[in-house]
UniProtKB/TrEMBL annotation:
GO molecular function terms attached to this record: cysteine-type endopeptidase activity
Gene3D superfamilies: 1.10.132.130, 3.40.50.1460
Encoding gene per record: LOC110789264
Organism from which the protein derives: Spinacia oleracea (Spinach)
Protein name: Vacuolar-processing enzyme
Keyword presence, Mitochondrion: no
GO BP annotations, alphabetical order: proteolysis involved in protein catabolic process; vacuolar protein processing
InterPro entries, per the entry: AE, Legum_prodom, Legumain_prodom_sf, Peptidase_C13
Domain named Legumain prodomain: residues: 377-473
Keyword Protease: yes
PANTHER family tied to this protein: HEMOGLOBINASE FAMILY MEMBER (PTHR12000), VACUOLAR-PROCESSING ENZYME GAMMA-ISOZYME (PTHR12000:SF50)
Cited Pfam families: Legum_prodom, Peptidase_C13
Signal peptide from the UniProt entry: 1-22
């Protein structure tokens, strides 16, 4: 747990650098809206005007499990911001596994919070798609508005028309070219992009904004999302780095002691807390992008680069066009002077957040209790599955490309603007082939998808990968972290 021992040093560093950074980085386009409010009405038509069409939203948490508390918490919180903004329930579609509020680990049964002193965000959230209905198929069908393709759930879909505005928010674990789901398979970038192209071709929206929190989330759009679809996307991280959980145990401002899990994600709470406070009729997508980018990159050690893709000219749109705005915030327009100044927090890498949970559970459980034993077992299983996956993929690389060249090929990162892989079907076939022998990639193992993509890019055949994986993993691992009990992730 280097993170804890390093925090004193980090605190000192933050103190020393805080003078230099005390002003948020804003460019000259961000001014107090009051500076130019007289021109606003002229430049931006009243977003309450019925002629702008209907606002739709799709909110999805791609995970389950108590150690992933923060993703469903982000989604619940986002729902309330949109609801208070004036969106109707019939236009907000929520996907969440719904196993957090009443998990036995939840210290406040029936309550979910998204920040240390936050209110309950669980009450009132529509349960459109929960449990095993949170699937790639349902998510994509809901975006397309194709009710007949939906299985289970409320059947609510984005039944939008040509003047409508759509907002989509996804939060979970991810990896290069992939977004996690609580069910199998996961969501691959090519399928998501194809769906967005199809939605555009159907002429059923005016513009669409997509916010994505996940590790390597830039890889979902990098070199893949074309301009001209009227889509503006921002992601928590670039194509090659982690995104970060926040409000984690031991963090300052202190998370209530009874919570052994992170309460939010850094990029997600950055936009949600900003939207919750301000008059969104006077704040543009660009202003929010800059604010979120600054907050998400504020910590020198635990930070990621918020990215933007697609039709960036949509940035001048006011947030209210997508999120509505809470009438109670009509006088809160000071975007330069808001609560989003970097706090001295220690965010936790998405991929380590489960370990933090098991570790804190272990640390706090009474000596000799069955709870302590259980936490230790969970921690050890998660660790050993990680080691197994790391070693197996390396061995496959060495078997395919030789001891010297193997790691170079696996770790190759394509230049900015190029998609992760040319042949997505190859990638998915290779993922299944690897998993058949070596066990499920699981949340942690999604990080290795770049290596598997590189194997495809090198022109290796499925037979070769099959043989190499069989050699690397002579027996299929057992246990909850490594079994194939649910299916393949591709
Ligand atoms: C909707 O989904 C069904 C079932 O997958 C499919 O057959 C149909 O073509 C889809 N409709 C449209 C308009 O895409
Ligand atoms: C905003 O300020 C105006 C003028 O001071 C006031 O009349 C109005 O009630 C305020 N709105 C809210 C929601 O507080």
């Amino acid at each position: 747990m280097i993170r804890y021992t390093g925090s004193i040093l980090l605190g000192l560093l933050l103190f020393l650098t805080s003078f230099a950074n005390s002003r948020p980085i804003v460019d000259d386009l961000i001014r107090l809206p009051s500076d130019h409010s007289s021109t606003l009405a002229h430049v931006f038509p009243d977003v309450d005007d019925d002629s702008v069409g209907t606002r739709w939203a799709v909110l999805i948490a791609g995970s389950n499990g108590y150690w992933n508390y923060r993703h469903q918490s982000d989604v619940c919180h986002a729902y309330h911001v949109l609801k208070k903004g004036g969106l109707k329930d019939e236009n907000i579609i929520v996907f969440m596994y719904d196993d957090i509020a009443f998990d036995e680990e939840n210290p406040r049964p029936g309550v979910i919070i998204n920040s240390p002193h936050g209110h309950d965000v669980y009450a009132g959230v529509p349960k459109d798609y929960t449990g095993e209905d949170v699937t790639v198929n349902n998510f994509l069908a809901a975006i397309l508005g194709n009710k007949t393709a939906i299985t289970g759930g409320s059947g609510k879909v984005v039944n939008s028309g040509p003047n409508d505005h759509i907002f989509i928010f996804y939060t979970d674990h991810g990896g290069p070219g992939v977004l996690g789901m609580p069910t199998f398979p996961y969501l691959y970038a090519d399928e998501l992009i194809d769906t967005l192209k199809q939605k555009h071709a159907s002429g059923t929206y005016k513009s669409l904004v997509f916010y994505v929190e996940a590790c390597e989330s830039g890889s979902i759009f990098e070199g893949l999302l074309p301009e001209g679809l009227n889509i503006y996307a921002t992601t928590a991280s670039n194509a090659v780095e982690s995104s970060w959980g926040t409000y984690c145990p031991g963090e300052d401002p202190n998370v209530p002691g009874e919570y052994d899990t992170c309460l939010g994600d850094l990029y997600s709470v950055s936009w949600i807390e900003d939207s919750e406070k301000h008059n969104l009729r006077t704040e543009s997508l660009k202003q929010q992008y800059e604010l979120v980018k600054t907050r998400t990159s504020s910590n020198p050690f635990y930070s990621s680069h918020v990215m933007q893709y697609g039709d960036t000219e949509l940035k001048t749109d006011m947030l209210a066009l997508y999120m509505g705005t809470n009438p109670a915030n009509e006088n809160f327009t000071y975007v330069d002077d808001n609560s989003l100044r970097p706090s001295s927090s220690n965010p936790v890498n998405q991929r380590d957040a489960d370990l933090i949970h098991f570790w804190n559970k272990f640390r706090k459980a009474p000596e000799g209790s069955s709870r302590k034993k259980q936490a230790e077992k969970q921690f050890m299983e998660a660790m050993s599955h990680r080691v197994h996956l790391d070693n197996s993929i390396k061995l496959v690389g060495k078997l395919l490309f030789g001891i010297e060249k193997g790691l170079d090929v696996l770790e190759t990162v394509r230049p900015t603007g190029k998609p992760l892989v040319d042949d997505w079907n190859c990638l998915k076939t290779m993922v299944r082939t690897f998993e058949k022998h070596c066990g499920s990639l699981s949340q942690y193992g999604m990080k290795h998808i770049r290596s598997i993509a590189n194997i495809c890019n090198a022109g290796i055949t499925a037979n070769q990968v099959d043989e190499a994986s069989a050699q690397a993993c002579p027996s299929l691992p057992s246990g909850p972290w490594s079994s194939l009990h649910k299916g393949f992730s591709a």
